[in-house]
Amino acid sequence: MKNLKMKFARIEQDISQIELANRIGVTRQTIGMIEAGDYNPSLKLCIAICKELGKTLDDLFWEVDSDEKDKK
Amino acid sequence: MRRIRNKKNNLDEMQEQKLLHVERNGAWLAFWGLLAVMIVQLLIFGFEGTERLVGEWVVFMCLSIYIAVGSIRIGVWDRKLEANAKTNLLLSIVASFVSAMVLALVNYRTYQAVEAAVATFVMNVIVLFAVLFICLTCVTQIYKKRLAKLEQEEEE
Prior knowledge:
The structure holds 2 protein chains of 2 kinds. By secondary structure, chain A is mostly helical. Helices cover about 65% and strands about 0% of the residues of chain A.
C-alpha cells in the first residue's frame, strides 16, 4: 500500500526525495520504495523521517482500517 | 593511496536487507549446486571419482554445519517444518531413499552388476534411515533444549 501521507508531507515542505534521503542518511531509492509501499522501514527510520518532515508517527505511518473507522 | 574499504557501512537498511536476501539465495544456490555437482560426478566417474570430490564435500559439510548450528543457536528450526518425530521420520525416509538410490546407481556405474546395485540400495536404505532418524532425533532434542533456554532467558 502506497504511503501517500509521507509523499504529501514531503511535497508540502517542497523537499525532493533525494534531499530527504540525504538528510536522513539513506538512498533515494529507499525513500521511493517507502512511498511506493514496497519497503517497510524500521521504527528508527520512521522516526527519522517524521523528525525531518515535522510530523508524528501517527501522521505518516498509522493506517486506519475499516473497523476503526466504523467505531469512530 | 586512496582507501578502498570504508569502516562505515555504505548501505542503508533497505539495501542491507536486499543484500542479505541476495546472499541468502547465493548460499542456497551454493548448497544445492555443490550437492548436485557431487551427485553428477559420482554418477559419471563411479566410486573411483570420490577422491575428486574432497574439496566439494568439505565445503558442503562446512556450509551444512554452519547453517544447522547457526539456526539452532538462534532457536530456529524451519520456516514450515515442525521439529517432531513425524517430520524426522518423513525426512529420514525421503533422504535415505534418495541417497540409497544414488549410491545404487553409482555402484552399478562402477561394477556393472544389477544384484550388487540392488543389495547396495537395500542395505543403504536401512542403514541410512536408521542413522538419519537417530541423528535428527538428537538434533531435535538439542534444538528443543536451546529453544527452552532462550525462552527462559527472555522471560528473565
